Amino acid sequence: MIVGIGVDVVDVARFGATLERTPALRERLFTEAERGLRTESLAARFAAKEAVAKALGCPPGTAHAEAEVVNDENGRPLLRVTGTAGEAARALGVKRWHISLTHDGGVAIAYVIAES
């Protein structure tokens, strides 16, 4: 059963400019494993973090780094959700996450589905 769904769109150039203007933002938004990725990939991951928050109903106190996008051995994106976001997911009965990321034409998009 679907518990929540979230989608977000990020302008890649604008996001990249923001990261350059505010270098500390990279550490606040991303886990150590995510930080070294290209701007397009970071924008897609930021969109995923926003989509996770939307799927969970935007629980107060949730930090962006609590939703981490990792890749399996085949390159498929997977979500790891911890902290306040993880607690909210457990409270909603989330057992499985579905995620799709893309970036093309200057935009990055993420879809996230939380399933019980």
UniProtKB/TrEMBL annotation:
Ribonucleoprotein found in the keyword field: no
UniProt entry tagged with the keyword Transmembrane: no
EC number: 2.7.8.7
Residues bound to Mg(2+): 8, 50
Similarity-based family: Belongs to the P-Pant transferase superfamily. AcpS family.
Assigned keywords, A-Z: Cytoplasm, Fatty acid biosynthesis, Fatty acid metabolism, Lipid biosynthesis, Lipid metabolism, Magnesium, Metal-binding, Transferase
Protein name (Swiss-Prot/TrEMBL): Holo-[acyl-carrier-protein] synthase
Biological source species: Microtetraspora malaysiensis
GO molecular function ontology, one term from the record: holo-[acyl-carrier-protein] synthase activity
SUPFAM superfamilies membership: 4'-phosphopantetheinyl transferase (SSF56214)
InterPro entries attached to this UniProt entry: 4-PPantetheinyl_Trfase_dom, 4-PPantetheinyl_Trfase_dom_sf, ACPS, Ppantetheine-prot_Trfase_dom
Task performed by this protein: Transfers the 4'-phosphopantetheine moiety from coenzyme A to a Ser of acyl-carrier-protein.
Cofactor(s) listed: Mg(2+)
Compartment(s): Cytoplasm
Pfam families according to UniProt: ACPS (PF01648)
Residue ranges constituting the 4'-phosphopantetheinyl transferase domain according to the UniProt record: 4-94
Catalysis performed (reactions): apo-[ACP] + CoA = holo-[ACP] + adenosine 3',5'-bisphosphate + H(+)
Gene3D superfamilies, per the entry: 4'-phosphopantetheinyl transferase domain (3.90.470.20)
